[in-house]
């Protein structure tokens, strides 16, 4: 078991805003003591997991989660250490392209089927027309 207190905070401003993060511009995400207790903020309670080894997992990461995160570990003796993480979340565009490719392929298949059907029906029409013409000529001639 760990006797240290862990705190994860996030910047209110994204790193791309060009402004420095002011002391009051941080929001607590979680405070926990591994193996003892954890206190996760309302906005993250369904998406944050704390573990007995002190690690933390952020689930269902969103574009809005991009930003600067600071993790502080405070010992009972008063010593503390911190680490800063910059999280950049980007959209995955290839999934949209994959759906587009499947849609175009399906449309191409349907168009090909319709073209072959039209060709086949045209051939049948011409043969029936020729056969009727022969029948008509045979009866009158």
CATH topology of the largest domain: Immunoglobulin-like
The gross shape turns out to be rod-shaped
**What class do helices, strands and sheet pairing give?**
alpha+beta
CATH class of the largest domain: Mainly Beta
Which architecture of the largest domain would the CATH scheme give at its second level? Sandwich
Helix and strand arrangement:
Layout: E1 5-11, E2 26-33, E3 37-40, E4 48-50, E5 56-58, E6 67-74, E7 80-87, H1 94-140
Antiparallel strand pairs: 1-2, 1-6, 2-3, 4-5, 6-7
State the main characteristics.
141 residues; 2 domains; two-stranded antiparallel sheet; 7 strands; 33% helix; rod-shaped; Ig-like_dom_sf; transmembrane
Can you tell me about this structure?
There is one protein chain. With 141 residues, this protein is α+β, with helices and mostly antiparallel strands. The protein folds into two domains: 5-87, Immunoglobulins (Immunoglobulin-like), CATH 2.60.40; 92-141. The protein is built from one helix and seven strands; from the N terminus they run βββββββα. It has one helix at residues 94-140; strands at 5-11, 26-33, 37-40, 48-50, 56-58, 67-74, 80-87. It has a five-stranded antiparallel beta sheet, with no helix packed on it. A two-stranded antiparallel sheet has the order 4-5. β4 and β5 form a beta hairpin. The N and C termini lie far apart (108 Å). The model has no long low-confidence stretch (mean pLDDT 84). The chain crosses the membrane at residues 97-121. Keywords: Membrane, Transmembrane, Transmembrane helix.
């Amino acid at each position: 078991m760990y006797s240290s207190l862990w705190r994860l905070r996030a910047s209110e401003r994204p790193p791309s805003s060009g402004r420095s993060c002011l002391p009051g511009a941080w929001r607590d995400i979680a405070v926990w003591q591994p193996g003892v207790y954890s206190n996760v903020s309302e906005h993250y309670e369904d998406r944050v997991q704390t573990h007995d080894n002190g690690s933390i997992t952020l689930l269902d990461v969103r574009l809005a989660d991009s930003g600067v995160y600071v993790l502080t570990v405070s010992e009972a003796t008063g010593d503390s250490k911190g680490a800063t993480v910059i999280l950049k979340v980007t959209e995955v565009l290839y999934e949209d392209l994959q759906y587009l490719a499947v849609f175009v392929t399906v449309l191409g298949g349907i168009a090909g089927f319709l073209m072959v059907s039209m060709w086949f029906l045209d051939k049948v029409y011409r043969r029936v027309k020729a056969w009727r013409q022969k029948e008509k000529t045979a009866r009158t001639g």
